[in-house]
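seq as requested:
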Amino acid sequence: MRAILIPLAVLGLSQAARAADISSAYTDLDSKKDCVTYAQAEQGDGEWADLACSGYRGYPVLIAYDDARESLFYGFPPGGDMTSAWESFSGFNSSETKVEWRIETTGDRAVPFAVIHRRTISNAEDGNKPTEVLLVAKVAQMDARDGCTVGLVIATGNPTANDQARKLADEKAKNFACGKDKRVVIGNVPAFGRVDN
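struct tokens:
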């Protein structure tokens, strides 16, 4: 009997491990090629714009740009409001063109639950030495529409930043309550904030 139970237990463990695999997929984000500007400032009304961009398999990336700062939202916005919250660094910043999506695959279903996106923040003390940060965000799903920044990982001078960001994404993003839970910050990250509209 014991000889039969051991292989069954091993089989059960391997099926559980296969039940939900986590992997990465990468997409490009070029605002000139991959985005549509759906709102922007009129002449003399400052310099702002809202863009909708292609992401991973129909999941959009939304960019709000204002005064040389960017706020990004990954997935489907609540109530169709693409500007429900502003999340960005205090300093001038920009996002890199490569987006890493953390994907949970169960059988034939692959769902992106988190994003890791490198951001570059200007340094007020030395313009030639910007700071790079990996932003980890929860991807808003069609049903919940709950997306936001989960954590920030300093990338400048940090050789393990990618591993730290993936661990953070995999452990925190799915159950993170946007607007309630506190973001995780790893390293000396420039000031970052959220404003709900």
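Residues 5-11, 13-17 have pLDDT under 50 and may be disordered.
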